[in-house]
């Protein structure tokens, strides 16, 4: 899976360099959507996710299965588990120090 993911990432980067593939959003787009509170339309859209997208229709069936497994793993590890850890830490801080004020900042991903 690691070799497959690396190969797909390199292919995607080569396509970007060659101009045959473009990222569908700019940094300015991200800032605008962030300021408007509308990240679901651009960040969490599977096609524009910051998590590498290895799933595409041109892959053979056995590679598509590998791509789906990697995609699920990344989403679970990089998004869901991270959010759960952050949530637990915030909750613990608030419970341990109920008389203090806190400011928490979270990334859009």
UniProtKB/TrEMBL annotation:
<dbReference type="GO" id="GO:0006508">
    <property type="term" value="P:proteolysis"/>
</dbReference>
<keyword id="KW-1133">Transmembrane helix</keyword>
<keyword id="KW-0472">Membrane</keyword>
<dbReference type="GO" id="GO:0005886">
    <property type="term" value="C:plasma membrane"/>
</dbReference>
<keyword id="KW-0732">Signal</keyword>
<keyword id="KW-0812">Transmembrane</keyword>
<keyword id="KW-0645">Protease</keyword>
<keyword id="KW-0325">Glycoprotein</keyword>
<dbReference type="Pfam" id="PF01963">
    <property type="entry name" value="TraB_PrgY_gumN"/>
</dbReference>
<comment type="similarity">
    <text>Belongs to the TIKI family.</text>
</comment>
<dbReference type="InterPro" id="IPR002816">
    <property type="entry name" value="TraB/PrgY/GumN_fam"/>
</dbReference>
<dbReference type="InterPro" id="IPR040230">
    <property type="entry name" value="TIKI1/2-like"/>
</dbReference>
<dbReference type="GO" id="GO:0046872">
    <property type="term" value="F:metal ion binding"/>
</dbReference>
<keyword id="KW-0479">Metal-binding</keyword>
<keyword id="KW-1003">Cell membrane</keyword>
<dbReference type="GO" id="GO:0030178">
    <property type="term" value="P:negative regulation of Wnt signaling pathway"/>
</dbReference>
<dbReference type="GO" id="GO:0016055">
    <property type="term" value="P:Wnt signaling pathway"/>
</dbReference>
<keyword id="KW-0482">Metalloprotease</keyword>
<keyword id="KW-0879">Wnt signaling pathway</keyword>
<dbReference type="GO" id="GO:0004222">
    <property type="term" value="F:metalloendopeptidase activity"/>
</dbReference>
<protein>
    <recommendedName>
        <fullName>Metalloprotease TIKI</fullName>
        <ecNumber>3.4.-.-</ecNumber>
    </recommendedName>
</protein>
<comment type="function">
    <text>Metalloprotease that acts as a negative regulator of the Wnt signaling pathway by mediating the cleavage of the N-terminal residues of a subset of Wnt proteins. Following cleavage, Wnt proteins become oxidized and form large disulfide-bond oligomers, leading to their inactivation.</text>
</comment>
<keyword id="KW-0378">Hydrolase</keyword>
């Amino acid at each position: 899976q690691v070799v497959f993911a690396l190969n797909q990432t390199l292919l995607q980067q080569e396509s970007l360099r060659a101009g045959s593939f473009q990222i569908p959003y700019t940094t300015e787009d991200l800032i605008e959507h962030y300021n408007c509170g509308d990240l679901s339309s651009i960040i969490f859209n599977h096609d524009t996710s910051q998590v590498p997208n290895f799933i595409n229709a041109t892959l053979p069936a056995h590679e598509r299965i590998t791509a789906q497994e990697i995609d699920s793993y990344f989403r679970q590890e990089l998004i869901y588990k991270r959010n759960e850890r952050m949530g637990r830490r915030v909750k613990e801080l608030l419970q341990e120090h109920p008389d203090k004020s806190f400011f928490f900042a979270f990334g859009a991903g």
